[in-house]
Amino acid sequence: MQPKELLALAEEFGNPLYVYDAAIIEQQYNRLTTAFSKVEKLRINYAMKALSNVTVLKLLKNLGSGLDTVSFQEVQLGLHAGFTPDKIIFTPNGVSFEEIEEVAKLGVQINIDNLSVLEHFGSKYPKIPVCIRINPHVMAGGNSNISVGHIDSKFGISVHQIPLILRIVENTKMHINGIHMHTGSDILDIEVFLYAAEILFDAAKNFKELDFLDFGSGFKVPYKKGDIETNIEELGKKLTKRFLAFEKEYGRELTLAFEPGKFLVSEAGYFLAKVNVIKQTTSTVFAGVDTGFNHLIRPMLYGSQHTIENISNPKGKERFYTVVGYICETDTFANNRRISEIHEGDVLCFRNAGAYCFTMASNYNSRFKPAEVLWKDGKGHLIRERETMEDILKNQILIDL
Ligand SMILES: *Cc1c(COP(=O)(O)O)cnc(C)c1O
Description:
- The chain is of the alpha/beta class.
- It folds into two domains: 52-260, Alanine racemase (TIM Barrel, Alpha-Beta Barrel); 268-382, Lyase, Ornithine Decarboxylase, Chain A, domain 1, CATH 2.40.37.10.
- Helices cover 31% and strands 23% of the residues.
- Helix 2 packs across helix 9, helix 3 packs across helix 4 and helix 8 packs parallel to helix 9.
- Bound molecules: pyridoxal-5'-phosphate.
- Pyridoxal-5'-phosphate is lined by residues 47, 49-50, 68, 70, 91, 182, 185, 216-219, 259-263, 355.
């Protein structure tokens, strides 16, 4: 989107503001399906924890996407947005057995990542087919907070425990219809992904009635200049070839599934915030914005580097700024970043604000969560109102004392 268009939206809807460009979500979705167009049965399940606004879900549904969910509430949101249960997969971790039961009763595909839960579920519901989440123990990327397939990760059932899975399946007569892995959010190297895929293929051979193989996600998108991006086109070529060969060997038609979050929505998002103050100290020039980690926590939580542009002065001379929030804690968005000259009242734009930004927002400091706008066909549509004091007070009870 152009700075002018974004600035106009900030004026119309106020700050801070999340804006999502529908065209980019569409483009990313099509890139993925094109890369795997030789696969007869391809299924993309959008990982909605990245961005869960119901209009965004509807947009993805209209593109043909399914949904990857991690809570009963996400399932409910998906149904509300128009997804049918057969288009939803539930991949929880550490949730109660009752929650899994509730979701299964809706007819949603269950993905189990724990031996005790598998045994419990199989004994109680031997007729409901389930998918198994395998941990291939492959380290994806360098960040152990977002890499979830390594040896110490809490996610998935270890590939080394397949004999135990098989014993449970035999004892309960349950039906395993899918096998799944998700190595984490940072696939820097396609070869690493393909290596993990081989482990999944090997594991799959143990189960005779699979309908799908789910390769999770971990597709990397660039956040700043020079960042590596997962080469989806090359992955498409290589994995398709291997998948088709496996399908033949397996002797049964299989669906190839993915569940990307970040890849589909990260680059579609823009977060707009106004500069309240410029503070010059002896060593640093701070730009203080009307937001903080209550609205965008990734820089503080993961050290993510969101590119920041001054859309009020896009062509200005660049200077160094440390961009900080208004929260009464250290909430630094960027340290000594080159940004075109900032004046108080300017609007800054944080790029890659589609994935894990609004969904991680909170009311810390009793601030309102921002509004969300979908940019579609040259027009901004409000898809979430800015919160008000009513929202802050909604569930609070002032008792007589
Ligand atoms: C979060 C998550 C995803 C999406 O990961 P991205 O890096 O956003 O693509 C996919 N699958 C599962 C099981 C997840 O928990």
